[in-house]
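Final report, closing paragraph on structural work. Over the funding period we assembled a curated collection of sequence-structure pairs, and we close with a single example.
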Amino acid sequence: MSTEPATGDAPVDASIDARLAALERASDQRSAELRELAAAIPPAISRRALVHGAARDLRAAPNKGEIARRGVRKLVWAPMSLARRVKRRVVGSADADA
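Its predicted structure, as stored:
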């Protein structure tokens, strides 16, 4: 068996090389686009900065009443939601024991 390519394989190798080069260019282009997107994403921010930003947005919001009502509703529903999750976990573990 010879490891040398046959003379008939040369055009096939050239087309494969061309396709690989095109794929590599496309990959490099996508990588550059992803790097640009990553640079555009803001860095991680602290909770304090997040709360300050939310407060600043709230001060400028025209519908402060609706925002306050939604916040109160979430605070009221949070304990009930937590109780429901705990109950599911307890019931789920009881079913597994049976």
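The radius of gyration is 30 Å. The chain has a mean pLDDT of 85. We thank the funder for supporting this effort.
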